[in-house]
Amino acid sequence: MKKILLAIVIVILGVSLVWFSFYLFKQKNTNEQNITNTNTNPPIANPIKITTPEANAEVVSPITITGQARGPWFFEASFPIKIIDDKDIELGQGIAQAQGEWMTEDWVSFSATLSFNPTTSTTGFIVFQKDNPSGLPQNDASFKLPIKFTPIETSTIQVFFSNSQLDTAMLDCQKVYAIDRLITKTESVGTAAITQLLKGPTEPEKNQGYFSSINSDVTLQSLKIDKGIAYADFDAKLNEAVAGSCRVTNIRSQITQTLKQFPTITDVVISINGESEAILQP
N or C terminus: which one in the chain shows less Cβ crowding within 10 Å? Predict the structure, then answer.
């Protein structure tokens, strides 16, 4: 009888030892698996660190943006930034420039100064976009920082551009189309309107066929209104490499129609560095 009991005890102990060994083995594998999973996390899990502005900070234009990004976020030492409102309307865009060696997996400091259009929205986002020269969707990435806009008084003006989709034949060189622009309320609405015109169409507007015949980087030097006539003086960039009667006519039409939207202006005289006769010739 004692031998039987002893045998039973030995069997029980043996089974317990086997079970306990199996438990330890399983637990070890689980721990090793957990460690493996942790080590295989992407090394660029948080690619952007923003120094200024802080999240949900109230901002005004122009805004200075600083921070750090992982090296792969850059291409040729830069990446694009834009500001949108809470309706996903783009208010402005710019480029963040690396402040050091960018061909690294490590953190790289960057800075950007970005101007943006006024908005009636009170909230929006700064969107940091990974530069993706390949164009492949799998290489796209972005990061959004929530911001707030300082409430300002606004008014709506119009700017005039040509449009290849609305006017496919493009036979009338004077034909231009109005686009509404929201601006900060000002008494110098004529200057504000020409400033918006010289910025050219936005990317969404370009996608709708809008384009400008005016050179980029043109500067309005002065705008005076006397007895209903607006005298708009520009720098030499307005006349640079301008050829063809149709383009010249279109440039004049864009400027003239943008200014004649205001009831106090009945005619427009365009000049470059004070000269109005021998400019914008075909």
Answer: N
